[in-house]
Amino acid sequence: KPKRSATKFIYVTRHPIANIYGTDTFVRDAMGGNIDFEILLKNYIALHKYMKMDEKALKSPVMWVHLEDFTSDPNKVLAQVFRFLNVSADEVVVQQVLDNMPDITATPNAKYFKIWCEEGIAKNGPLMQRYAEELNALDLGYDLDIC
User: Fold this and answer.
1) Could you give the CA distance from residue 50 to residue 11 in angstroms, rounded to a whole number?
2) Phi/psi of residue 96, each to 5°?
3) pTM of the model as a whole
4) What would the DSSP string read from start to end of 77-125?
5) 45-72 pLDDT per residue, tens
6) How many CB atoms lie within 10 A of CB 109?
7) Are 145 and 116 in contact (CB under 8 A)?
8) Under a CB-based contact definition with an 8 Å cutoff, are residues 100 and 116 in contact?
9) How far apart (Å, rounded) are the C-alpha atoms in residues 115 and 132?
């Protein structure tokens, strides 16, 4: 009987609009450039399609974590991750880990949603509509109507 792999995969995802703006901010600030909104959107879709295909093909357990769930309730989500990894999810252990992390912003997407609602939707709303079917097919549970 073949031995089962001990490898486990944790996929962390984020709302597509916040992800696009966050990636754009990183590229601009860290690398001094920018990437077109549509390219970032296509990349988000392609990456998540790949992750979904990979999940089906893997012979190892997979866990999906939404960044928004982690930031809104880090104790709960970190305990879930620890249980998935079969390590101690004891409240004290989880709290010790969190106490040694930088501050976690409870609503990391708020600034990006504000930008989207104030100016992004006018500029890129039609693009989001064009790709909405593909985004929804990813079945990540994100609502694209955030304004």
Assistant:
1) 11
2) -60, -40
3) 0.89
4) HHHHHHHHTTS---HHHHHHHHHTSPPPPS-TTHHHHHHIIIIIHHHHH
5) 999 999 999 999 988 899 999 999 999 9
6) 20
7) no
8) no
9) 19
